[in-house]
């Protein structure tokens, strides 16, 4: 069984500040890990993914995440927040073979001037 | 480039009515997934198809729900005798199996409101 925990349902940062969204997972098999972003009334867009190989993964829009097996974490970061980053972010874990994804409950990111 | 499309985008219905949603995946994608997202929650897996075969169904998919993918292309999700608890965003995703992880591409969703 797999599960995802996202700490903090709402995060607020100032424009230009560091963004840190936390994700911890539980998986009985080596996980595939993902971050998705969702803008209001839209579907999910993939930001980045970890499948195998390098544990620091770079994604779109300046986001990156690091897979830490010992901490069972996959936190999402961005050095400098932009107003356009305001959205809801979901961490997800998938099994090998690309079957169903298990999502966290999401973190709403607010960016303030 | 045509991504995953879903129709309708919004549906308002009265309790007890039947509704049907359609999903058109990315062309040549052989896998198609349905998820449900309620307010304040992440998407939850409902079911998925590989070509026309329905390979897995979640316990969330009660007997009132049925999904089909008759020709291995588009899919429909029908909810019979809708209940207020069915109000949610229904998301469709598709992927192409090619070894390793098969990235899922999501559509814009169908938002269902049951009055």
Main traits of this protein?
heterodimer, A: 113 residues, mainly beta, 4-stranded antiparallel β-sheet, B: 115 residues, 0% helix
Proportion of beta-strand residues of chain A = over 45%
**Topology pattern of chain A, helix = H, strand = E:** EEEEEEEEEEEE
- From the spread of the alpha carbons, the general shape of chain A counts as globular
SSE pattern of chain B: EEEEEEEEEEE
Indicate the percent of residues in helices of chain B: under 10%
Q: What is the distance, rounded to the nearest whole angstrom, between the alpha carbons of the first and last residues of chain A?
A: 41 Å
From the spread of the alpha carbons, the general shape of chain B counts as: globular
**Main sheet specs of chain A:** 6 strands, mixed
Give me the secondary-structure category of chain A: mainly beta
* Spatial separation of the terminal alpha carbons of chain B: 36 Å
Task: Determine the most extensive contact between two protein chains.
Answer: A-B, 27 and 28 residues
Task: Please give the largest β-sheet of chain B.
Answer: 7 strands, mixed
Q: How many runs of DSSP E, i.e. beta strands of chain B?
A: 11
- Which range does the strand content of chain B fall in? over 45%
């Amino acid at each position: 069984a797999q599960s995802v925990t996202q700490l903090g349902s709402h995060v607020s940062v100032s424009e230009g500040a560091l963004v840190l969204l936390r994700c911890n997972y539980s998986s009985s098999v080596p996980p595939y890990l993902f971050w998705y972003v969702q803008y209001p009334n839209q579907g999910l867009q993939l930001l980045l993914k970890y499948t195998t190989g390098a544990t620091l993964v770079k994604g779109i829009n300046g986001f990156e995440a690091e897979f830490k097996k010992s901490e069972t974490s996959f936190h999402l970061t961005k050095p400098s927040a932009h107003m356009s980053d305001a959205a809801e972010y979901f961490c997800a874990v998938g099994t090998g073979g690309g079957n169903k994804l298990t999502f966290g409950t999401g973190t709403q990111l607010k960016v303030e001037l | 480039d045509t991504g995953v499309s879903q129709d309708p985008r919004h549906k308002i219905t009265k309790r007890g009515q039947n509704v049907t949603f359609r999903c058109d995946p990315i062309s040549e994608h052989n896998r198609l997934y349905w998820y449900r997202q309620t307010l304040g929650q992440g998407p939850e897996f409902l079911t998925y198809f590989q070509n026309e075969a329905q390979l897995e169904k979640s316990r969330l998919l009660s007997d009132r729900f049925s999904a089909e993918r008759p020709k291995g292309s588009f899919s429909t999700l029908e909810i019979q005798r809708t209940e207020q608890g069915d109000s949610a965003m229904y998301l469709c995703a598709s992927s192409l199996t090619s070894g390793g992880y098969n990235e899922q591409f999501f559509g814009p969703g169908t938002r269902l409101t049951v009055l």
